[in-house]
Structure formats: C-alpha cells, structure tokens
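Entry:
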Amino acid sequence: MRSHSIDVAVGSDVGKRYSANFDVSYLREQPLLAVLADGMGDGPGSAAAGRTAVETFVGHVARAAEVGPDQLRAAVAAAQGRVIPIGRELQTLAGCTLTAIVGAPQGFWVVQIGDSRVYRLRAGLLELLTTDHTMAWLGAVHGWYPFDSPQAAAARYQLTRYIGHGGAPEPDVFSVTMQPGDRYLMCTDGVSDQIGYNDLLAYLGRETKPQAVVGELLAACDRAGGSDNATAIVIRVG
C-alpha cells in the first residue's frame, strides 16, 4: 500500500430530539480504522446494539492476521452473532447500522451495512460511495415514488440490511484508493439528512483541519433543527 499522511477527526452531538446519544464511533489513525454505528430507535436495544457491534467489529479486525474482504465479512458476521440475541433477550428491537473504513497492506476497504454513509471529495467532485440499505433508496432508484414524498420519508426508516437483522445479511465490502488531497466523510443519517449536498461540499472543501470541519458539520446539524443524533468522521489525505 502506498503510504500517505492522514489527518482524521471524529465528533458527535446528541441533537435536540433524544435525551441520549445512540451513535457509537471508534477511530484509530494508524493503521486507519474508522467505524460508525447508528442505533435503531431510542431504547435499550438500540444502545446495546451499537456498542456491541462496534466493540465486536473492532476486536475482530484487531485480532485478524490479515485484513481483507473475507476477514471484514467475518467481523460483521461476528457482530451479527452477538447483536441478534440481544433483541431476543430484551424482547425489543436491537439493531444498528455499521460503516467502516479499514486500512490494510493492500489498500483501504469500505464496509457498509445500513444507511450511514461514506462520501469522498476529490478534485472538486463530492461523491456518495456507499448505498443506503433502505426501501427509500430502492424507491428512488426504481421510481416508485417522488424522492420528497411522504412515502419516501416513511421508507427512510425501513432498513433492508442492518446489524441485528434476523437473517444476518452480509455487508457491502469494496476497496478505495486514497489520493493526496482526498477528503472522506463518514456520517450517520443525523448528518446526511440535515445537511444538503452543496453544504457538505462546501464544508469538506475548506482548507481547514478535519477537527474544524467536524465541528462545523455538527453546528450545521444543530442549526438545522438537531432532529437526530449526529456523528461525523472526517479523513484528509496529505
């Protein structure tokens, strides 16, 4: 893997809707391991799912002799194996998203299950690299209903894949090549639902350190109403 200097930062805000924060994050700079989970709902199952999923995924990756698609899918499977029983024990919904960027000798891997997101800003173009595993995404792609319709809004909360799903679905796993000047944003839907594309582009495009960008993003979420927990990880490639 070609070596690049990487500057990273993470931040989270509870918002104004919930009394607690059900987002969970983990960040290690070298080798890069950035993980986000967003609990489903605001009950004890949500809190337990997020903590357990991140702890299990990070531990599995740390113990792996090598890191690649097979090991990352196994890490998600291990998280499924620990979170699914929580819902049965608590007799309530226990689920969360899980999104990660993992550095390895051969490059960087993105892991995605749920509707948290990874964006990349390169040469002025902000791209969404991940797919939302929701009925809203399927509806938008296939034209089932207008994107800003009440049906689409309701479908945003219908996840097709997540940690804690009884069918233990697999994640998307794909590689990315980081180039000097790249900016990556990992965020829960509390960020992406409250800050529009052009504003995300503007914040990420500023020549400021990732910690400052994270602070600006969270402040923008608060100004937009703070309707959800909001967590962001910003990665700048030197």
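The radius of gyration is 17 Å.
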